TrEMBL record:
PX domain segment(s): 4-125
InterPro entries: NADPH_Oxidase/PX-Domain, NCF1_C, NCF1_PBR/AIR, NCF1_SH3_1, NCF1_SH3_2, P47PHOX, PX_dom, PX_dom_sf
Family matches, as Pfam families: NCF1_PBR_AIR (PF16621), p47_phox_C (PF08944), PX (PF00787), SH3_1 (PF00018)
Ranges annotated as spanning the membrane: none
Compositionally biased region (Basic and acidic residues): 352-361
Protein name: NCF1 factor
GO MF term list: phosphatidylinositol binding; superoxide-generating NADPH oxidase activator activity
């Protein structure tokens, strides 16, 4: 068997320890290539020092030379005082860091620095304790928070796609392709750019140039949603093709069909057309640094611009013309207006029918008979009787 390497790291939670003084350690389940599984404990300060050393070992991949080449994940520096709240809040970031770390190119993920850091130590098997001090308190990561890419029980299997045409990269963060190249997709983005690896190369590739090996990719929405979903334009774009829309930053639009190549069909008032999804943000959603970085890049090529290609995309995906989008969208808007008008008319009719009833004089309560003088004198007080008499 070759050199040992890690196939998966899962964050289990953290421990609050009281010896030699109160501190916190994270618990990791490390799965090795020989199928063994070990639990190790690391303080965050140790993890951060490991991270800094890793960046020094791989300055290109850490982005020190060119930020566009960075593939080593970010990790926030430890605070002056790490309490239980910061330890708990950091778990999501740490879980994502470990997932990304293991999936880096082998020269990084399988280097001795990574392997040695996660090897079982003597303290992992026999943690230092003191019978006079409280036992460590264990805080396991909730099950719900494990519904993420880190919730994996075995080796990660990446999807393999085939390039349907040659693609020349336009920036250092992209990867050039030749027709027929087989690539493994690491990350699929709604922007239409997918992060792929080919042998020892990694980079962003337009989804329009890729097709699955076994059949048409059906991960995009099958049917348009003419009701529309509200989005806000985050970056202006000037139409190049006739079926595209020109919009300005800040415009509010409705997305009616999300397509895999990153060009979505949108509606502005009663006009429909294609627009780069990477320049859109869902209404009410908070902006993130990752999305901001993507928007600084150019829009990916559209599938329709790839000429003379025999692709299985055309076999599986139902082609919808822009005229169909426009006609059905207008029909939906008109039906919506008619329904609103009918509802308003019904409301008016109900009000008119109720008006005569409302105008009818309501029945007044009967006036009680006035008591006789003798009854009043018999029931009143002595002072009242004197006043009357």
């Amino acid at each position: 068997m070759g050199d040992a390497f890690i196939r998966h790291i899962e964050l289990l939670g953290y421990e609050k320890r009281f010896f030699p003084s109160q501190h916190y350690v994270y618990m990791f389940l490390v799965k090795w290539n020989d199928l063994s599984e070990k639990v190790v404990y690391r303080r965050f300060t140790e993890i951060y020092e490991f991270h800094k050393a890793l960046k020094e070992m791989f300055p290109i991949e850490s982005g020190d030379i060119n930020i566009e080449n960075r593939i080593i994940p970010h990790l926030p520096a430890p605070k002056w005082f790490d309490g239980q709240r910061s330890t708990e809040n950091r778990q999501g970031t740490l879980a994502e860091y470990c997932y990304t770390l293991v999936n880096l190119p082998h020269k990084i993920s399988r280097c001795l620095h990574v392997v040695n850091f996660f090897k079982v130590r003597h303290d992992d098997m026999n943690p230092v304790t003191d019978s006079q001090i409280k036992k460590p308190e264990v805080f396991l990561l909730p099950k719900d928070s494990k519904k993420s890419p880190t919730d994996i029980t075995g080796p990660i299997v990446l999807q393999t796609y085939r390039a349907i045409a040659d693609y020349e990269k336009s920036s250092t963060s992209e990867m050039a392709l030749k027709a027929g190249d087989m690539v493994d997709v690491v990350e699929k983005s709604e922007s239409g750019w997918w992060f792929c690896q080919l042998k020892n190369k990694r980079g962003w590739v337009p989804a329009a140039y890729l097709e699955p090996m076994d059949g048409p990719d059906e991960s995009e929405e099958q049917e348009p949603n003419y009701a529309g979903e509200a989005y806000v334009v985050q970056k202006s774009y000037t139409a190049v093709e006739e079926d595209e829309l020109t919009l300005k930053e800040g415009d509010t639009i409705e997305v009616i069909h999300k397509l895999l190549d990153g060009w979505w069909v949108i509606r502005k008032d009663e006009t429909t057309g294609y627009y780069p999804s990477m320049y859109l943000q869902k209404a009410g959603e908070v902006n993130t640094s990752v999305k901001s970085e993507l928007r600084n890049r150019g829009a990916p090529p559209r599938r329709s611009t790839i000429r003379n290609v025999k692709s299985i995309h055309k076999q599986g995906r139902k082609q919808i013309s822009q005229e169909t989008y426009r006609r059905n969208s207008k029909k939906f808007i008109q039906n919506k207006r008619n329904m609103r008008g009918n509802f308003q008319n019904k409301a008016n009719v109900i009000i008119e029918k109720n008006e005569p009833e409302d105008n009818k004089p309501k029945a007044q309560p009967a006036v009680p008979p006035r008591p006789s003088k003798d009854l009043i004198l018999n029931r009143c007080t002595e002072s009242t009787r004197r006043k009357i008499l």
